């Protein structure tokens, strides 16, 4: 691993992934299921409180983890 790479403890990653899933359940559009990129939620004034204990980097890693597991599907805006 390079010195400039971000590392997250595996248990912390699971905690952050659970928080991402909870936050997305709160903010997802009921009709389409679409939602904003989870780390971007931290910049929203009314962001889900479950994200507060985590840094942007931790939420990015958790989001990527959930995508690798197939739980989230990343669909870039067109």
Number of domains: 1
Order of helices and strands: HH
Radius of gyration, CA atoms, in whole angstroms:
13 Å
Poorly predicted runs are none
Overall outline: globular
Portion of residues in beta strands equals under 5%
Number of helices, counting only DSSP H or I runs of 4 residues or more: 2
Largest sheet report: none
> How would you state the average pLDDT, rounded?
86
Distance between the termini: 34 Å
Helix content class? 25-40%
Summing up helix and strand content along with how strands pair, one would put the structural category as: mainly alpha
Structure in words:
- This protein has helices spanning 10-27, 56-68.
- The mean pLDDT is 86.
- The chain is mostly helical.
- The protein starts with 9 loop residues before the first helix and ends in a 10-residue tail after the last helix.
- It has two helices and no strands.
Question: Which terms would index this structure?
Answer:
40% helix, 78 residues, mainly alpha, 0% strand, single chain
Can you give me a brief rundown of this structure?
This protein is mostly helical and 78 residues long.
């Amino acid at each position: 691993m390079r010195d400039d790479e971000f590392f997250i403890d595996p248990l912390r990653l699971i905690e952050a992934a659970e928080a991402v899933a909870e936050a997305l359940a709160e903010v997802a559009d009921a009709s389409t299921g679409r939602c904003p990129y989870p780390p971007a939620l931290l910049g929203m004034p009314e962001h889900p409180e479950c994200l507060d204990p985590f840094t942007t980097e931790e939420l990015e890693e958790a989001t990527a983890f959930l995508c690798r597991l197939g739980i989230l599907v990343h669909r870039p805006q067109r």
